[in-house]
Amino acid sequence: MSLRFQRLLLILLTLVIILSAVLLILYNTRENVSYFYTPSEIDKSDIIINKIIRIGGFVENDSFNKISSSSFKFKITDEKASILVTFEGILPDLFREGQGAVIEGAFVDKNIFNATNVFAKHDENYLPASIKEDLQNTGYWNKKYK
Amino acid sequence: MKFLVNPSKFNKVADYVFLPVLILSIILFSIGLIFSFYLSPDDYQQGSTVRIMYVHVPSAWLALLTYAIMTLYSIAGLAFRIPFGFIINTAVAPIGAVFTLICIISGSLWGKPMWGTWWVWDARLTSVAILFIIYLIIIFINLSFENRIVREKVVAIFILVGSVNLPIVKFSVDWWNTLHQPATISKLSKPSIDPSMMTPLIIMTFAFIMMGIAIAILRIKTEIISRKSYLS
Fold it and tell me: How confident is the model at residue A141 (pLDDT cuts 50, 70, 90)?
């Protein structure tokens, strides 16, 4: 084996070792690396009151209630579990029922989550507005997106 | 393909290619910008804000591509003792850093109206921020050693170590829950983007690539000349 291929082998081996070390670290800390929990990942018995966490999911259909001009009540769901959320503040433009959202805040009791921040989550689908109308007219529109 | 590893052959090819590449990039940018501003439709949710994507996505791709090229040349430089690899590393690092910065800035401009925040520390955004810091460190190492041979090796090794960040940037959206959306164009068969929006994206990507090549040629030639005077 020539010297240059020994060096190449050494470099590739080092890269593999470093990469696997980093991936092992990230795999074992995945709960902290993940930006949010989904509602079904939250175990009702494990809830710590007033601990700040983030929850992500869809805003449940027909769950959005406007209490006053700047205070809202809605449910975040991942179709397996849902969580009741209260929020005071300004909602982002994309926020609506059926839309993905990430909320930051804490449980005030076992069932009510008080959000301090609401982020709208955008999915990977891009579609011209005119085609949306066509799809709605022909009835092929997926009702999940409003 | 010798011009990819040999400085004098590279110079010859670069002299041929530079002007056409520059003109092509200007033409592609004109067409691409007309497409992205006037000929592409509004998104059904984002409205006009979707047009930021035509700058954001190409610059993100090129930030990663530039780093991948530097990784390959570092391996070539260290394992096969090809000095041209180190020339590329020095010349190309600032280009990648600028693409990363464009990606981050355009991304936050999009994030404020869409997500409701300029910045969050989710896996994708954080790993791109780390990519930017790695680029900065490479530039700083390049400026800091007196001894050229030591400097080249340190830079190349640092680039190799930093390259573990590339798969993390790419797959962060699949491995963890992130606020950033997963890749739209990951499968070639049926991307979840309409052709009318795909066209400007592709044109802008090629415009960015051509501009990147044009700047890279200038910087690599400068680097070659500065080394010649250094040796004599």
Answer: low
Same domain for A88 and A42, yes or no, is yes
Which of B79, B122, B192 has the CB atom closest to A124's CB atom?
Answer: B192
ipTM of the complex: 0.79
Nearest by CB to B176, from A22, A33, A90: name it: A33
Determine, yes or no, domain membership for A134: no
Q: Is residue A143 part of a domain?
A: no
Longest dimension (CA), chain A: 76
Same domain membership, residue A101 and residue A58: yes
Within 8 A by CB and 6+ apart from A21, the residues are none
* 8 A C-beta contact, residue B142 and residue B151: yes
Phi, psi of B76 (to 5 degrees): -60, -45
For the cut 50, the answer to whether the pLDDT of residue B232 exceeds it is no
Average pLDDT, chain B: 89
- Whether residue A126 and residue B122 make contact (CB cut-off 8 A), yes or no, is no
Q: What domain range is A17 assigned to?
A: 1-33
Q: Identify whether residues A43 and A12 lie together within a single domain.
A: no
B196 interaction partners in chain A (CB closer than 8 Å) = 128
